[in-house]
Amino acid sequence: MTNEMKQTINLRNQKLIDAVLKKIEVACPGSVDLIGVAGSFAIGDIHEKSYLDLLIVINDEKAHELSSCFIVEDVGFDFYCSRWDRLESMLAYEDPFCTKLLQLDIVYQKDDVCLERYTSLRETMKKRLDATFSVEDAARVNEQVGEAKRTFADVMLSASYEAAKYKSAMMVDCVNYALYMLNKRFVKGGIRRMLEEIRSFTSRPEHYLDLVNSLAEASTLEAIQLSSQRLMKHSLDYIAAQCESVLREKTLKQSHIKGMYEEIYSNWLNKMRLAAREGDLYLSWMTAASCQDWYTDVNGRLPIQRIEIMVDFDPTDLHATLAAFEEGMAKVKANYDQLGMPIVHYSSLEDFEKGYLAVGE
What we know:
Elements: H1 3-27, E1 32-38, H2 40-43, E2 53-58, E3 68-72, E4 75-83, H3 84-89, H4 99-102, E5 105-109, H5 112-130, H6 135-157, H7 161-182, H8 190-199, H9 208-217, H10 221-247, H11 254-257, H12 260-278, H13 281-301, H14 318-338, H15 349-357
């Protein structure tokens, strides 16, 4: 882009900002705390058709009159009004689009108090991103992973090319967000620069960008679904391993597994025994799956031998399935034995009352 073109665009932008300031005086004086330029102009990554992304921070509903979406010649514009609570909500880092807290060129502030309020939010957000990856961060990443899985299901259930193409894009967005948050980064250059930014990440699946491009190029329903499977399997295995390193305890303690064996006995064992005795396949299947869901959570958090009871689920032999279930419980008991923990078991109600009521004496 030539310097002359840049000067023309900058002059246009200033006229637009001046128009907003004039309208504030006429329509809602005192209702605007801050105005900032966001997006490509805030970081200098512009082209001839770049539009002015203007954030207007308001303190009064009257100021919504300043919001406007319009076209000048062949460039579209969007003036967006936001209350402070919208900016403050970005501190939760529920997604990587906290850009307006971190890349905003302030062009107007009502007073120093407003500027200090924004600056404080920005510094808090920076500290959040600079902090070591935590259990809370891993939970946020897994929220994006969960959404990616839901959209992946939509892709696989799609009956048409157009539906799958749309849903696969939403799926990739969720995986992208998870990778941003895994690396404690935020989206700087919008959609246009997202893949470039991901390429620079320390933590990302090998060949991830190739898989994204393959999915973008997929031109049939079957190709979209196959590419989606490959991308999800490759990406989510990697993300899970990275998060597990934070979520997983390093040393097993009694407090980690207290009540675990007893809970399995209470919630699932007798249902599995009943299912085997009565030949109830559905009860056995659903009970085993429910327990496996619980084991999967435990497997991800604690340094214990992984328990995968569904590996040995046999729909033709529920007694063998029960035996496999009990083997899983034996592994849990082995952890009790390792830590010198007895199973809390009473031979009668009288023994229970005696033991239970003695607690705290």
